[in-house]
Amino acid sequence: MAQFEEVSQKSELHPKPEGLMLQYGTAGFRTHAKHLDHIMFRMGLLATLRSKKTKSTIGVMVTASHNPEEDNGVKLIDPMGEMVTAVWEGYATQLANAEQDSLLKELKDIIEKEDIDMSQPASIYVGKDTRPSSASLSQAVLDGVSSLGGKTHDYGLVTTPQLHYMVCCCNTNGCYGSPTVEGYYQKLSQAFLQLTQNASNRTDDQKRLLVDGANGIGALKMREMEPFLRSELQVVLSNDGSSGKLNHMCGADYVKVQQKAPQGMNMGVGERCCSFDGDADRIVFYYTDSKGCFHLLDGDKIATLISTYLKELLTQAGLNLQIAVVQTAYANGSSTRYLEDIMKVTVCCTKTGVKHLHHAAQEYDIGVYFEANGHGTVLFSKAAQKQIQELLKDSNTNDERKRAVKLLESTINLINQTVGDAISDMLVIEAVLAIRGMSVQDWDAIYTDLPNRQLKVTVSDRRVIDTTDAERRAVTPEGLQDAIDSLVKKYKSARSFVRPSGTEDVVRVYAEADTQENADSLAHEVSLAVYRLAGGVGDEPKPLH
Ligand code: 16G
Ligand code: MG
């Protein structure tokens, strides 16, 4: 067929280095940019098949998020703006690893397995982050799509969540919003302005927010959005990409992992600050107190503030909707305890990785999901949105209830329900703090984090570790979980787990306890157990102190 001839010819321009094997992991393909040209071309092919199969527009985002600037990566976006399904992740890996001469065979295999009607049209939205390699890599995606006769819309530089939003807008025929960057700014800013109208007498100081753009796409898009916010948010942007390097000593991942402020940010005492990651789908907040002590408000704190606010609104509106918070094993024990015991909110725990949290959150009327690292959003079920709309129209609703329902409606519009979105989450937090008249210190005081430590251990094959119970318990290697259990017993308020990373060739260790010293030594002891029982390589892990 002529269609495949073109694939054949064009694929020669994007050859796969022989022997190179890559896997579509938790966040798509991600590695040094120099290994990715053929992957991009092939993901263009796969997205075209996915589009034909689903008879919908599919997204392809070129980014490596918080990884160093030299890396890059690619993720596929399904019709409603969610991550591509697990079966298609498998196809992605299969196609990516096919040697040059068997590419067509693998392609045809997927077409056959999925019974794809190749006469269907295909439409692909493509976006990229600001990495130097992104331009040519996204061109390779476009080449892949066109070689299979698909149509493309190249959005150029956009944040990951913006592209998810576009895909959802397109496939809902505009019900979710208009599929343009301007449409995105308009939808979010209108909702934000409506919400902040409910917060009277905000001073300029309260409207001021220091934003670390990680020298990436988030900074660029924040600049574009600023005029839409009409000074209701006064953003002081640092690491805006004008001089620094992407994610280098800045950004959400740096701040969360290092537990310190990014470079290049001029923080006054007590000032509210936040950091985006390299593709602006994660955010963390922080401030420094008068003693110079750094306070991090991570995804757990964000989930707690948002769910508390939503629960209050539901009560005020007289709506009987079930709200749940979805976390992972990394959630600080204090946050889980606060949500369950004080807030009486359902908490559920899933495996690490956005798609797992997203799916779990879909089970509730309102599902608030956040990873501790700051990736998350809120999902409102169709039924919940319908109830809210009906109550808005009901003329018998009294003023107090009406106010609460209107706030709920604007909050829904402000949230990017397709995926975690640093810009949207930032605006939600700013609006909630404004409406409730809270400072960042009040927010921080809701509960106190248990001291914790994360370490990594290199082993010869991390797959020897198998976990269960949302990664909270190790099933293999034998004896490892027993060792962890007896170490945990030595400390107060302690908890620890280990899991193979989905993005790096290491085993991750998490520990929390009543003091930082205890969390550190528990993390170290568990690392040693992993090293000894799971085939550690290199030097034995050393104590932190
Ligand atoms: C990816 C995931 C993130 C997860 C992280 C864990 C997405 C979009 N991103 O970055 O949610 O927290 O992996 O990394 O799903 P790890 O497996 O190396 O610990
Ligand atoms: Mg990211």
From TrEMBL:
Entry's EC annotation: 5.4.2.3
Keywords: Acetylation, Carbohydrate metabolism, Isomerase, Magnesium, Metal-binding, Phosphoprotein
GO annotation, biological process: carbohydrate metabolic process; hemopoiesis; UDP-N-acetylglucosamine biosynthetic process
Domain Alpha-D-phosphohexomutase alpha/beta/alpha: 52-84, 119-167
Pfam families in UniProt: AMG1_II (PF21405), AMG1_III (PF21404), PGM_PMM_I (PF02878), PGM_PMM_IV (PF00408)
Enzyme class: isomerase
Matching InterPro entries: A-D-PHexomutase_a/b/a-I, A-D-PHexomutase_a/b/a-I/II/III, A-D-PHexomutase_C, A-D-PHexomutase_C_sf, A-D-PHexomutase_CS, AMG1_II, AMG1_III, PAGM
Active site as annotated: S65 (phosphoserine intermediate)
Protein name: Phosphoacetylglucosamine mutase
Species whose genome carries this gene: Carassius auratus (Goldfish)
Source organism phylogeny: Eukaryota, Metazoa, Chordata, Craniata, Vertebrata
